């Protein structure tokens, strides 16, 4: 890539980890990213369409204001400790209707006492992971019109950012029926994974994937089920080999979200059903646990001559040397990384992780060196889906000693299947960070 002036033309520009419906819904959801102090709760721009039934629903408060401004009152009391509860601060501003506010990483929810009462939930008002998912499921579901509109606005969003191919990590029955009806009209090729936030829903999602895979579709491919093995670094629920530096009695310490024996069975059941399996793993202990399980299943299947499908590791933000060694033995284990997380996380990573863990962060170069299959994505709506943002992250991360990849960065944003991408291309001006043209299935849909 000597002459950087020339526009790049690439087939199958790919975001390998997104939540399509979540991206579309976010555009219509109460935005909580303005919250810096409790008093900002007064300035939220609340509209009738932000309610789900009688519950005010919002998205995007920053986990890392935890124990800092957002939960500290004017007398410097920290909410959630001693006599203060998380719901107290919300109750001061919201006392007429229940409130359910999801954090920007999607792993936590902040509820007022009316919401806790409504959902019969005994808690200080801060829910994480499985419990958060369980309660969120009780909210009034979105209407078919809302879902259809969200799919349309999300695909317009991805197209304008240059993407023709995405890997969608969430799906439920209503969303799936809307998506099916739109198949021939889509302007995105979608690899569909059935994400389950609660591991108890795995077998239902597996059954659903088996049925969904039988559909004869043009723009959608059903891949399999995705589960969560750990939480997030932001909320100290990612599974680490070390202790969190900023851990206190507020956090209970990270635990696997699925027992190892259950996860092993999920992997086996996916593969014997001819489906791939995907697992959310952020911490170094999480990826190592899952890789050990995968190794034993692969060896067992090889012996019994049972076909082996793919295992996708989502995020893999921290990887230990042991994990890299296991990975190097298997070509069917694929990693999906989001460089843009570095740009958001760099402000607090060093407060949480011991020095010796920093060198295990974002190991795209080591994965490249050992010729591992991996792709880049955004985790939209958690982060903006942007090719240029990921490029910036790769460069900025070098300041932390995180080695950059050797290949051109767009390589890891390109779908590998020539057949699946042959009639779709994107022309981009790398120097000016502009998308010049997007062509999908032979038709130019964006020209700038
Ligand atoms: Zn995700």
The proportion of strand residues reads 15-25%
Rough shape?
globular
Unreliable spans are: none
The largest beta-sheet arranges its strands as: 2-9-10-11-12-13-14-15
Mean pLDDT: 92
Structure in words:
By secondary structure, this protein is α/β, with parallel strands linked by helices. The protein has 2 domains: 115 residues, Diaminopimelate Epimerase, Chain A, domain 1; 300 residues, Alpha-Beta Barrel (TIM Barrel), CATH 3.20.20. The protein has 16 helices and 18 strands. The strands form 3 sheets. The protein has an 8-stranded parallel β-sheet. Strands 3, 4, 5, 6, 7 and 8 form a 6-stranded mixed β-sheet that branches. β9, α6 and β10 form a beta-alpha-beta unit. The longest helix has 21 residues. The protein is globular, with a radius of gyration of 22 Å. It starts with 7 loop residues before the first strand and ends with a strand. The site of zinc ion has 4 residues, from loops.
């Amino acid at each position: 890539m000597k002459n950087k002036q020339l526009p790049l033309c690439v087939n199958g520009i790919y975001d390998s980890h997104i939540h399509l419906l979540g991206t579309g819904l976010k555009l219509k959801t109460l935005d909580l990213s303005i919250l810096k102090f409790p008093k900002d709760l007064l300035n939220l721009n609340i509209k009738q369409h932000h309610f789900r039934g009688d519950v005010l629903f919002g998205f995007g408060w920053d986990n890392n204001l935890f124990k800092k401004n957002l939960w500290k009152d004017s007398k410097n009391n920290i909410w959630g400790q001693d006599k203060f509860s998380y719901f107290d601060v919300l109750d001061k501003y919201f006392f007429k209707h229940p409130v359910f506010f999801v954090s920007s990483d999607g792993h936590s929810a902040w509820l007022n006492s009316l919401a806790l009462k409504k959902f019969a939930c005994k808690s200080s008002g801060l829910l994480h992971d499985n419990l958060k998912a369980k309660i969120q499921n009780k909210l009034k579901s979105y209407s078919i019109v809302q879902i259809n509109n969200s799919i349309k606005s999300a695909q317009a969003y991805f197209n304008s950012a240059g993407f023709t191919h995405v890997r969608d990590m969430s799906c439920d029955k209503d969303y799936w029926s809307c998506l099916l009806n739109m198949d021939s009209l889509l302007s995105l090729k979608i690899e569909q994974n059935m994400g389950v936030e609660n591991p108890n829903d795995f077998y239902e999602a597996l059954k659903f994937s088996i049925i969904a895979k039988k559909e004869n579709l043009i723009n959608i491919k059903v891949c399999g089920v995705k589960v969560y093995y750990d939480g997030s670094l932001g909320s100290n629920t990612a599974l680490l080999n070390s202790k969190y530096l900023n851990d206190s009695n507020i956090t209970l310490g990270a635990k696997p979200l699925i027992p190892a024996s259950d996860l092993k069975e999920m992997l086996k059941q996916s593969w014997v059903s001819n489906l791939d399996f995907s697992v959310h793993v952020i911490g170094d202990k999480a990826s190592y646990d899952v890789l050990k399980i995968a190794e034993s299943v692969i060896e067992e299947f090889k012996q019994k001559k049972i076909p082996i499908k793919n295992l996708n590791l989502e995020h893999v933000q921290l990887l230990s040397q042991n994990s890299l060694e296991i990975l190097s033995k298997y070509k069917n284990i694929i990693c999906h990384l989001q460089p843009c997380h570095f740009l958001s996380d760099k402000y607090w990573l060093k407060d949480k992780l011991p020095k010796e863990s920093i060198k295990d962060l974002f190991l795209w170069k080591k994965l490249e060196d050992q010729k591992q299959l991996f792709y880049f994505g955004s985790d939209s709506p958690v982060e903006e889906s942007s090719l240029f943002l990921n490029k910036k992250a790769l460069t900025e991360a070098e300041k932390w000693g995180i080695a950059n990849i050797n290949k051109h960065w767009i390589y890891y944003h390109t779908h590998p299947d020539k057949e699946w991408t042959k009639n779709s291309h994107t022309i981009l001006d790398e120097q000016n960070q502009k998308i010049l043209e997007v062509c999908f299935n032979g038709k130019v849909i964006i020209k700038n």
